[in-house]
Structure prediction request, 418 residues.
Amino acid sequence: MQKLIVNGGKKLSGEIHIQGAKNAALPIMAASVLCGGEVILRNCPRISDVYSAMRILTYLGCKAGFEDKNVAVINSENISAEGISDELMREMRSSLFFLGAVLGRTGHCRITLPGGCDLGPRPIDMHLSALRKMGVTIREEFGTLDCTAENGLHGAKIDLSFPSVGTTENIILAAVTAEGSTIIRNAAREPEITDLAEFLNACGAKISGADCGEIIIRGVEKLHGCQYTVMPDRIVCATYLACTAAAGGDIVVSGCRPSDIEIILAVFEQMGCIVHTGHDKIYFSANRPLKAVAPIRTMVYPGFPTDAQAVVMAPLCRAKGTSVFVENIFENRFKHVGELCRMGADILVEGKVAVIEGVNRLYGAKTCAADLRGGAGLVAAALSAEGVSEISDIHYIDRGYEEIEKALSSLGADIIRI
Ligand code: EPZ
Prediction:
């Protein structure tokens, strides 16, 4: 098992380019199944979840691979399977997006319950009830879901009880070539949804309202391939800013979209960091002792994203005063807290609330990642700790971060992978 060894206490400096967004690339790769042609995806991150998605595409009979460093080429002319193996389904939660896409392409799909980071029970009830409204019959037995649209998929009016990102994406994928129109009310408004809609529209779909919570999809006969550039990863961007806030220093982040993370930038400014933004750049400085911030509640977009909770918590461990997080989206997303406390942090978790009392210093310790963003939070904390930290189970981190140790080393961090 690989580990990261971090020798903390070094300030960061330099410029870093932000990778393409995992949570946009994955649904877009699933959507490529609907095109029946060649898709060229630029700014596609080389992360393990993308390789998992390529294995699913290959399993389905598509061609999928990287042509250049971050250019993925997918050809879905031939689909030979109408299902995904249990092993592949278990690799990540995003395997679920392939359900809507394969149903849209073939009218039948057999899957098992998806895997992914353990953030609490991650039911798929909303996905299934929406697909049933679109004409899909779902037979569930022993964890296998056999989904069939006997008379083809048809449009529907769907009111989501919660603006679920994955459910919104699955409905879009099933609706783009369905008979008639589909309207999704209380839809998720995350920027990755807009990116998926823009990709599909470039392939000939007719989707509107992706950024306003009420999405209308008018079914079309057929889609075609296209060339598309994936949006920058807003959570990876927030992560490297959090690393700098924790370790101190001055960095420039390029190839990012500051408008996607305004609410997070405001939190860093509350901490005492200096933030200047350009069109696709952020100039970030953290050279003063940090201050605690007002309570942070994770919410759906455009609120504070749950995916940024762990990474923003790291610098707050040494901020002067008391900070509070309320995790409203997932039931079990504080697994990094115990590991931070091993480094000397003073954090109390009560249900969905975490109370952080700032301490003067953190100390290097042996820690273990338990999920993707929690692992990234441990890296940020280790950069600010005195002494050497070891982070194991870093396969979680590799799911969403392209060579995190190389990115941070380029900013002057003393971090190696063994
Ligand atoms: C997506 O997960 C992201 N993953 C997550 O990012 C992100 O944390 C999450 O959205 C929230 O923004 C991808 O895009 C691949 P949800 P998803 O459906 O689609 C409940 C990361 O770190 N729910 O919006 O699974 C669910 O249990 C990952 O990159 C139901 O109850 O999120 C959760 O409490 C982690 N029934 C809440 O909704 C359903 O049918 C939000 O889930 C579906 C969801």
About this structure: The chain is about 30% helix and 25% strand. Residues 22-23, 26, 93-94, 117, 122-127, 162, 164-167, 306-307, 329-330, 372-373, 400 surround EPZ (CB under 6 Å). The longest strand covers residues 12-17. The chain has two domains: 4-19+232-417, 22-229.
